[in-house]
Design brief:
2 copies of one chain form a homodimer.
Chain A: H1 4-12, H2 14-30, E1 36-37, H3 49-61, H4 64-67, H5 77-91, E2 100-103, H6 105-117, E3 123-128, H7 133-140, E4 144-149, H8 159-165, E5 170-175, H9 188-205, E6 210-214, E7 236-241, E8 254-258, H10 265-278, H11 286-295, H12 303-319, E9 331-335, H13 341-349, E10 353-354, E11 356-357, E12 366-370, H14 375-391
Parallel strand pairs in A: 1-10, 3-4, 3-5, 5-6, 6-7
Antiparallel strand pairs in A: 2-8, 7-8, 9-12, 11-12
Helix pairs in contact in A: 3-11, 5-11, 6-7, 6-10, 12-14
């Protein structure tokens, strides 16, 4: 008796859910320590100590009724001002509190934006491979997600597929860099190409096409700065989550950020404010909002992720696998050793390696390795990867 | 450039938002203490001390990475089991953890249910007067809210309007007792009438019609127990929020509860689990979930609300106003002294009394008085209500 459209979507996503179930099953048989589970995207690095310390200080010093009370739908003004200040200092932007909306994480922010911008059948373009839930977010309000496949050798946006994906009904382009599932950081060159096309298309269609930058992994970039997208395109809406930077994904806290130049900014702000209510969010969790006043520039120790990445990337390259060097997030995209990436993942299970097939991310022929695992697990997995490789050399 | 359907809805709701803006404006002119603002539904009673104490204990004793990590989309199994146990003890039910889904409050829960049950154009019936956001929740996924006006003398459900509101496309009935905006607690007699009709209609249409009971005010009932709806109807889905019982509306924590008898229960559970992701909720805030392990049976001191209710109810009756005795929540519904309730609210502002017009809740001819204000404010407002009454006696 559930909705037909949901039933359809559930049936399609069974293969993805199966990956997680399989992990649990294998761990139960062989013991968790004997399984190389690279399917899970859970942060594995401790939250910075200031996170808990701040929460306790707030609980000790602030008046409980007001601390836990409703905030404005868009969040506490002082928290929004604090984030605007931080972004302005860090990325040379000019946000103010009237352009910041506190949300229950980045996923919530994207759904709020979909609800605000999309009428029935309106389109959102995203670069594939992409995080699989994007499709569900867009479809939750009867929009349509149109993928633009990246160049599958470089995992960078491709001008041909991108331009072909745009249409009169494109309301926004959803971009995710550092990328889940590929770990790619889109280069300045890629961003210039994307935004040049967008500017041209805005003119052609006579209405804004927003660029929504979903960047929960911004702080997880190694040996490089991730270009800040407002510097490339005026109509950029930034979506951020503290899930990865502070290792607090269960607490659900993030924001939407718009500079004053964003077209129809006041309308968007009013629409997003209403969408916070209409979708049942009401406001982002209040204690977590206040925590940010003290933790806005804190970060987990990203060297730990980097170490694991280096072990895996070097190890896999040495064995003979084709990987794109992942500059950010905690994902490594690797070419499957046969065309059918799902079958390749099945074969890998025989070596007790669990990976997500690229097809699940609209990235066929590849697999995603989530390396938010202890460095030691990564190290120990290499002989198993070697045996998997050998299976294909017969 | 925001979605057309959102634009339409924003334009319609301007009158409601104006109430809140007006309150701020008047407070700025005359001073907050000289305004009798009865428009706001914010809890005004301190959270029980155990709420903060529990959070601090959890922060001190639990491992931070796991504490703040993703939980299952439906929440921690032990928290769900704890809530099932509590409900079974308290209301003589037979929930188990597989029927409990932790949500970011009751609003989130309702949207999750809408997303799970409604295809385009499917209908939800609710008893009017109703909490105004219901319409937006249902429309966020392109459903249609059909109001069934209560008997406006008793504020209890009316069999005639209810039966007329049901159709082949009714997927669920949304019931809210104790009620916002009326403060009415629906009687056992009313519930039997409603569920008898529902059973008959289920049979006639050959598919389940769920009864979704939105009960954030369950613990705010005075001198009475609010009947528990599963005892009246098998296909009942209970939606709860701790916002009012613990005075923590900003933290966004609540649940959906289904007994094993609910038809297609496993499907519903799977659908709601997916909807938690598809709508961007992912999981209810993790620290707040764990807090409930220690606070599941805590409650604010409801005597404070009751005292204020008694002052207002008696005072207004003595002046000559017509009010229905409010048995729960912190709302009092009062008949306007003229047909046009919005104009009546305008006149009341001349006495510095702010109330919400019943029309905003689909309850024309009445006004809502939110009495989550200090008892002293209620007491001091009575001479102003007297002057307002006198204006209409000329």
């Amino acid at each position: 008796m559930i909705a037909k459209r949901l039933r359809q979507s559930l049936d399609q996503s069974i293969c993805i859910r199966d990956i997680f179930e399989e992990g649990k099953k294998l761990a139960a048989i062989y013991g968790k320590e004997n399984i190389f589970n690279f399917t899970i995207g859970n942060p594995s690095v401790e939250p910075p100590a200031i996170v808990n310390a701040s929460m306790k200080e707030i609980l000790d010093t602030e008046e409980a009724l007001s601390l836990h009370g409703y905030t404005a739908n868009v969040g506490y003004p002082e928290v929004r001002a604090c984030i605007a200040d931080y972004l302005n200092r860090k990325y040379d932007c000019h946000y103010d509190e009237n352009g910041i909306i506190m949300t229950s994480g980045a996923a919530a922010a994207i759904v709020v934006i979909c609800h605000t911008l999309l009428d029935y059948g309106d389109e959102v373009v995203t670069f594939a491979p992409y995080f699989w839930e994007y499709k569900s977010y867009v479809e939750s309000v009867y929009g349509k997600l149109v993928p633009a496949l990246c160049n599958m050798e470089t995992l960078q946006p491709d001008p041909g597929t991108f331009e072909a994906a745009l249409s009169e009904r494109t309301r926004f382009v959803l971009i995710n860099t550092p990328n889940n599932p590929t770990g790619a950081v889109y280069t300045e060159e890629s961003l210039r190409m994307v935004t040049d096309i967008l500017r041209r298309k805005q003119e052609e269609y006579g209405h804004p096409i927003y660029l929504v930058s979903d960047e929960p992994y911004r702080k997880l970039a190694y040996d490089m700065e991730v270009p800040y997208l407002t510097h490339f395109y005026e109509n950029t809406i930034v979506v951020y989550s503290y899930s990865k930077a502070l290792s607090i994904p269960g607490e659900r806290i993030g924001y939407i950020a718009m500079e004053p130049e964003v077209q129809d900014m006041e309308d968007l702000f009013a629409g997003m404010t209403a969408s916070m209510r209409y979708l049942g969010y009401v406001n982002a969790p209040s204690l977590q909002q206040r925590m940010l006043l003290k933790c806005v520039d804190a970060s987990v120790d990203t060297r730990i992720y980097k170490e694991t990445r280096d072990i895996l990337y070097q190890g896999l390259q040495e064995i003979g696998y084709t990987c794109i060097h992942p500059d950010g997030a905690f994902y490594l995209f690797m070419k499957a050793l046969e065309e059918d990436d799902s079958r390749f993942c099945e074969t890998a299970k025989k070596e007790r390696i669990l990976m997500a097939p690229g097809t699940a991310f609209y990235g066929p022929g590849w697999v995603r390795i989530s390396y938010c695992v202890p460095a030691d697990t990564a190290r120990k997995s290499l002989p198993a990867f070697q045996r998997l490789y050998d299976r294909y050399q017969k």
